[in-house]
Amino acid sequence: MMPDRMKTTHRGLLFLIIVMAANLATSCTRSTATEPRASGTTGSGTGRGSDTVAPEPTATGPPGTAVYRYANPGLGATMRLDGDSGTLTIENDTGGELPPPGFYILDASTGDRVSGEVKDPTVIPNGETKTFRVSFSGLGIKDIGLVILMIGRDNYGAFARQ
Questions:
Q1: Is residue 14 part of a domain?
Q2: C-alpha 10, offset from chain centre
Q3: Tens digits of per-residue pLDDT, 40-93?
Q4: d(CA 69, CA 131)
């Protein structure tokens, strides 16, 4: 018995039409002619590698300061840095006692790990908020890639810069 070529042809044609429609819709919504250029660009705008784009600064405070926030159900943390020191505030509503906090930083340009120090770290009872003095060295605020929260020996993940 011979296969039904008509069904195969219709399926292939339908697939081709869907792919073409998706490509057309994507190209219609990505017009670069009307999009604003990134600040710090120079060159002719030909898209041939002649443009140089400088990233926008993400700091929200004066130079050398930064605020980072961490949020998880029952756990909130805010780190405020000014130069190479600052504070770490932990809000514990997890239902249990938390071990002493810590942190480390990843250098944005090299990926190297920079140890952070929490001065006088203590446990954080459920329902309490504690603020600790923190410090680190060997890295400027502008070179911070990620700040990672540690609770005891557990890595809780990265803070988000505000």
A1: no
A2: 46
A3: 444 444 444 444 444 444 444 556 899 999 999 999 999 999 999 999 999 999
A4: 14
| Residue 48 placed within a domain | no
- 34 residue type, one letter: T
Domain residues for 118? 65-161
pTM: 0.62
Residue 87 lies in a domain: yes
Q: Quick check: helix, strand or coil at residue 66? A: strand
Look up residue 48 and give its amino acid.
R
Query: What is the C-alpha separation between 109 and 94, in angstroms, rounded?
Result: 35
What is the layout of strands, in order, in the sheet containing 144-151?
A: 154-158, 144-151, 101-107, 113-118, 129-136, 85-92, 75-82, 65-72, 160-161
